[in-house]
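Researcher: Please translate sequence to structure tokens.
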Amino acid sequence: VQNPDISCEIRGFYSPSVDDIDSPSVGEDLAYRRALAVREALLIEQPQLAMRINVPVQGFDITKPFLESAGQFDPRVELVPKIEGWRPRVIVSSPNKPYWRRGFRKIAEDMGEYLSGILSRNPDIDLVFSSGKLDVPPTIADERIQTVVKKFIKEMNWEDESRLVAVHGGMAKAGEMIIDLHLGMCAPQPCNRKALWIEPEGYSAPSIDMILSSDSLADIYFYRVDYRSSGGACPAAFGFSDHPHRLELDPLDSLMPILPGDCQFSLFLRDNTLESERSDWQALDIDFEKDYYEMAVIPVVPFKLGTVEPSYNWETALPPIVDRIKYLAERKGELQLHIIGHALYSEDAHDSLALARAIYLWERIGDRLMALFNEDELPKLGEKLLKLGFTIEIREELHSLGLDAASAIPWAVGPICDLPVEHLAPWIPFATIRWEFRSHE
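Model: Translation complete:
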């Protein structure tokens, strides 16, 4: 609804075996009616989407199983988002002709105004520069990619760099770069795309103290803080004020929302007559306790079952996470980083597969950290991080669908935990990041 340039195709599927249908025409009609039922349900909630949600006139046989060995997923409906008028661009690099000279200049000049219009109208869409592995040191690879991004920013006349995501070692093939528009996954959780710091047992989440300078706000009795990142507004805190001119903002549900520098905040204040005043900030300063503890568990790369091949775009999740890791590594304290590859026992060679998924994620993180810390070799980066109190563990976790939902997906939150166990299998092939940080400042 809030992204007017996104349309959606709803595709219905049937399975000859599960649905017990011999006639393709009967099966395709059933698949079509399944897709139509989903469209009708969506339009009951959001009728304004009628012109942007379409159903192909013919359903599909299950030629592409959702799971290799789970027929119960074959009869299904898929929602495929599209950005009208856009197609991905691919450029091939070479040692003598880096990306910018190989064709992105013309794309930026021709498409700059169009792309800035897309981003300004659609707050949840990011412009992604996904580079395959380049046969150069990470610092040089990062320099080549950032050259493209900076030129695009200039041609687009665009200021919000957080909406332009650049990743070395992304979904593109080696030596190629794909420029594409994607729904953002900024530091995602499966439910609402917002990363939350998890409050460990025995530690209290930090509060935000605010001093109000306006005399007109002396009688404020209610407040609410909203933060906006990647387009969506979400309440960060609310409550009642017992102290004139001063608010102590306690996080909702004892969970502290992520506070990157590019977040925008709004404070809504109401007095006894229900009159309100609103103030906006680009970021909030947090006064942490002397001994501050932070923990996060964030899924990053989803994989196809039985492979180390990503199943869909994940690049928009990586930069904010790596930036946060760098920020914590440079603070006085201890940072423990756990890179975990997840696999199902039912997958072939599940031990090595899970470990390979963890290594895949670590290589992506390592490339970015080497560029940020200006190191071209991973051992030298490791020595620097070790001096900063940074430790890394790379390991695998295996899961059985016989477990309950929360155990099958250790990072599951909210409604995900309430899903039937058999529906969780497609979520498990993930590589996740878990970090723990203790600050001694």
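Researcher: Any highlights?
Model: The helical segments are 24-45, 104-121, 138-156, 318-329, 350-372, 378-387, 405-408.
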